[in-house]
Amino acid sequence: MGGGIGGLTTAIGLLAAGWQVTVYERGQALPPTGTGLGIWPSALRALDALGVGAAVRAVGRPQGDGAIRRPDGRPIVPLDMDRIRAKHGEPVHLVPRPALLRALHDALPTGTVRFGSPVEDITALRADHDVVIGADGIGSRVRAALLGDRHGLRYAGATVWRGTADLDISTGGETWGSGARFGVTPQGPGRTNWYAVLTVPENHRFSRPDADELRRHFGDWHDPIPAVLDRYATSDVIRHDLYHLAPALPSYVLGNVALLGDAAHAMTPDLGQGACQAIIDGAALAECLSGAEVADGLLAYDRLRRRPTQRMAAASLMVNRLAQARRWHFVRDTAMRLALSFGPPA
Ligand SMILES: Cc1cc2nc3c(=O)[nH]c(=O)nc-3n(C[C@H](O)[C@H](O)[C@H](O)COP(=O)(O)OP(=O)(O)OC[C@H]3O[C@@H](n4cnc5c(N)ncnc54)[C@H](O)[C@@H]3O)c2cc1C
Known about the structure:
Structural class: alpha+beta
CATH topology of the domain at 5-66 and 90-154 and 246-327: FAD/NAD(P)-binding domain
Radius of gyration: 20 Å
Bound molecules: flavin-adenine dinucleotide
CATH architecture of the domain at 5-66 and 90-154 and 246-327: 3-Layer(bba) Sandwich
Mean pLDDT: 92
Strand content: 15-25%
Helix content: 25-40%
Number of helices: 13
């Protein structure tokens, strides 16, 4: 259930393993717009195992070096792609979300995804199918139906604007101010993805229009940030508060239901790993259900994926707290240098 990144990946794997699969997706069609996602080598390898790695690389582009900087442009810590390439054989690929979903969807037989099919009744779905997979994202109904509201979404202390700008940049990176961050990544010729994060109370209403608010906080930061603020397409900017799932789930499996992706471990976006982990979950779940009894396969999936994804979510939250610090910036920057010296997640 859920035709997002995790749901489509799982469907490809399960079909290859001989299952009959129906994906119920509430959206009427694949989304036409969306910003870029960093897809790390481990997720690309999982896509390779499903035969769609080449198609995904083809619609993305390798990410170049970058840096975490201060608002005046001085680097805090470099983000060295050569290191990732040397260790894992290839860099992170930047893939626009709509292109990623299209590549996954194109690998499925026509009709596998039933668009415009919001699932309301999980009990009926369970009764009608051998296995139900809750890949329904951060606000998962399946999770709520299984576990109630003890494991719910917690506000991560910040709101984010995301969009694209008509601008060519050669390198990406993130800039950390005081309770404020701005990130840019090249998306393609003449196009740049950007996001801006501000520490504010949940559901905060700004007194100024978004454009003025962004300019007030980021307008005098280093290049190319002012140029991005001059040239972004106001029509495709989205703003939403950031949430993560807490406390961590005691299991990703209950009876014939499994949770994956954000439904199982919604994390803050600070390590750029949510989609990657959803992909790896989907490939792993399909592999575990290949030729095994359903109960055994689901338990094997839980054993394989729960710990690493929950560790990733905890690490992401730690970076979130560091990045949003309003003071003690020297301690923050040193901690970040130290953390990255152990190597970023791959
Ligand atoms: C600002 C930001 C930046 C990010 N950057 C990165 C990045 O660089 N790299 C990265 O790896 N991750 C990144 N992520 C995280 C990533 O977007 C998510 O982790 C990922 O989309 C999760 O995939 P999913 O399949 O679990 O959920 P989704 O992609 O959210 O898919 C869930 C699907 O379920 C459907 N659905 C929901 N409810 C129902 C229902 N009742 N019935 C039927 N269908 C339903 C939805 O319509 C949707 O299509 C970022 C996130 C944010 C917020």
